[in-house]
Amino acid sequence: MTGKPSSTPGGFAGWTTRRWLRVGVAGTLVVLAVLGSLGGWAMWRTTQITDSLVDRHSPALIEAIRVEESLVNQETGIRGYGLSGDRDYLRPYTQGVADEKVALGRLRPLIGADAEARADLAEVEERATAWQERTARPIAAASPAEAPRISEARTEAGKADFDALRRSMTGQQAHLEDERTAATRELRQATTLRNWMFSVIAIVILLVAALVFEGLRRGVTGPLSRLGESARDVAQGRFERSIESSGPADLRRLAADVESMRLRMVEELRLSEETRALLDEQAEDLKRSNTELEQFAYVASHDLQEPLRKVSSFTQLLQRRYGGQLDDKADQYIGFAVDGANRMQILINDLLAFSRVGRVHNEHQTVNLEKVFGRVLGDLSLSVEETGAEITHDPLPTVVGDPTQLGMLWQNLLSNAIKFRSPDRTPHVHVSALCDDGMWEFAVADNGIGIAREFQEKVFVLFQRLHTKDAYPGTGIGLAMCRKVAEFHGGGIRIDPDYVLGTRIVLTLPALAAVPTAPDEERQP
User: Fold this and answer.
1) pTM for the full model?
2) Rounded-to-integer distance, Cα 288 and Cα 302, Å
3) Which of 237, 260, 351, 421 could form a disulfide with 427 if both were Cys (CB 3.0 to 4.6 A apart)?
């Protein structure tokens, strides 16, 4: 027997399915939150470096190159104007000055707080201003006639200033290029880190999912499947299989409860088997006792026939020979003896007929009740004629049964209806027939004296009479025999308690398609 788990187990053994699920879900959420944070940080870092490269480093280098281009254009225009004195050569210079201002205006915000880049820009601006003040502006401001002279006088100084400016711009661009290269390298590293991190996150998520599924399989679905399989085996009748408990505490308690239920079922089944065996034994004893009683009643009634016939014959002979020769008391005693012998003869015959029901006449066949009813009316024609009884009936069906027993049944019912007639009205008997739910229901209704409600069950008991033999002759066996015949054919008989115009006896017999097979028992005549 599997014992029930302790109510206060320690450690993980006492955890229920709900607690395991709560802890598992909480742990999974924590892991997913950490992985999500790391993934978000990697995305943020990659985005930040990308924005810095796209929005700052590359545009700064581009603007530095534009500054250089604008200064080169200025130097080209000044040199051409200084050599030719033609003001058309000042157009590149003028455009270069404008471009320089625009490029510097864009470059300063891009550099921001970068100290090295700001120092490079300051150096470029300082050298550009020096070259412009010493060379470019004086030449540009001179007249076409004086421009060549001033240009020739400042050629060496101007060349030296511009070379220094060019070196400063080259250094500035080199520094910006290095920063962009470093930012690009850092972006590649951040991208690689992000990709690896997402790969690790994916692997961890797969591992967590696998652990969750495996945990559910081992802790919940597996124990439930085993418990369900064991319960199905028990439900199919394999009560010897014990219910094993595994998994969380609540599933173990459930398995223990099912095991307790199985044990109770096994115990109840054992008791039921013992009770059934005892009932079978008692039923067999009762069956044997009934058979012996029936045989005894038959033998007793049969063996009493011969001595009773002798008593009856000699008392009748005594009455015929000595009747009127003795005193009145002797004639009265002889009459009592003759009457008692005749009544004993009738009682034994009725008892013999009762004991034969289901024993002697047991030939089940299709029986046309119309023919049986007509034969019974023929047997009762004298009583019908003497009493003026009116007997009507609905169309009667064909059933399966023993024709002799069914004839006895109808004869007893109709003869009782005529016998217990009311003295102040003509007897009227009607037999109705109705098929309902596989059973034929017959009702024998008369307008006789009726039966009080408290005696409506008593009249079906053997030898029970409601009237004296002087008022209504009989032995009290007729209705008991009717009940035995009806039950032997798989039906029943009762008195309608709501009928107040006389007596209405309701008889039921199985319909032709619903007739049970007659028990195959060995009968003795």
Assistant:
1) 0.42
2) 21
3) 421
